[in-house]
Design brief:
12 helices; 336 residues; twelve-stranded mixed β-sheet; Isopropylmalate Dehydrogenase
Length: 336
């Protein structure tokens, strides 16, 4: 186990977050990595599926490692009332945001070695005044990237099996994507990704494959000129900056096994271009990693699951993978 535990924000208490956290603790309690939950302790007790779960209220993250094998450590910031599984409660939104802030603060201070976030329901948070598209953008404000690094985060990366994909645009309507896929955005995503591959994943000489925007990567301009005007120049700029980058590649032939062997990460231009291959490869075990921050942050690659919350069927695979990856990256940074 790492010397400092991971900090896990509870996410939406009406979703599957509490259930998968309890299941992850049961799976990892004897092996680690150790973590402490920031959130409402009663929600975790209620998510135990009728089984007894030992909860240990901690005053700080340092207590978590010593008690992790015998009880689930929780930095309890309680809800004002009850939340029913599967029924999002707008009144809880302010505390969901607060749990993220506190958990991120633990990681920033070094009291936690990394931050792992359980899923949130963005629509409920928007009603409470949350002004960010999601966790990634929010964390970019809570934990601003260093000014002296080559690229500026946050950048969303998804990992599954032998595939890593980084996104140039994230939670944007498809109609807006062409206007947001700029030379600067592609270059920045590539620089941040290459740096993270070297620092956090131990890839000595990162190789990037940049996807095209249009079918067949534009078919030499016949199906769109973004590849000629924007993507290809960005790939050249990355190479001039010392990054081994290729593209633009047709996205429909970028993710089969032989293609994946030729790069360490793919740079994708919009949400579904990246997430469909990730979920096809490992639907249950994909991990979301935020690159370019001064802290380590991962999360499960799935949503709140209101439709199955409270039924005891949610699988913790992705959260367990996120916890293990966060610990691995944190240890690699500490060793460096």
């Amino acid at each position: 186990m790492t010397s400092a535990p991971l900090a896990v924000s509870l996410g939406d208490p009406a979703g599957i977050g509490p259930e998968i956290i309890v299941k992850a603790w049961r799976a990892l309690r004897h092996t680690g990595p150790a973590f402490t939950v920031v959130g409402d302790a009663r929600s975790l007790v209620g998510a135990a599926g009728g089984e007894t779960v030992a909860i240990h209220a901690v005053k700080d993250a340092a207590e978590a490692t010593a008690t992790f094998q015998s009880a689930l450590p929780v930095l309890d910031i309680p809800l004002d009332g009850d939340v029913v599984a599967g029924r999002p409660e707008p009144a809880a939104a302010a505390l969901v945001i607060r749990w993220i802030e506190v958990a991120a603060g633990l990681a920033l201070s070094g009291a936690a070695s990394a931050l792992v976030t359980a899923p949130i329901a963005k629509s409920a948070l928007y009603e409470a005044g949350f002004r960010f598209p999601g966790h990634t953008e929010f964390l970019g404000e809570l934990a601003p990237p260093p000014q002296d690094q080559a690229g500026r985060g946050p950048v969303m990366m998804l990992t599954a099996a032998d595939l890593r994909v980084s996104l140039v645009t994230i939670h944007e309507p498809l109609a807006r994507v062409p206007g947001l896929v700029t030379f600067e955005a592609i270059v920045n995503t590539g620089l941040v990704t290459a740096s993270a591959l070297a620092r956090d994943f131990g890839v000595a000489a990162p190789r990037l494959a940049v996807a095209g925007l249009n079918p067949h990567a534009g078919e030499a301009g016949a199906l769109g000129r973004e590849e000629i005007a924007i993507v290809a120049p960005a790939v050249r700029a990355l190479r001039e900056a010392g990054v081994e980058a290729t593209g633009p590649h047709p996205a429909d032939s970028l993710f089969h096994p032989e293609a994946r062997a030729g790069y360490d990460a793919a740079i994708c231009l919009y949400h579904d271009q990246a997430l469909i291959p990730v979920k096809m490869l490992d639907f249950w075990g994909g991990v979301n990693v935020t690159l370019g921050l001064p802290i380590v942050r991962t999360s499960p690659d799935h949503g709140v699951g209101f439709d199955i919350a409270g039924k005891g069927v949610a699988r913790p695979d992705s959260l367990i993978a996120a916890l293990r990856l966060a610990a691995t990256i944190a240890e690699r940074r500490a060793d460096a």
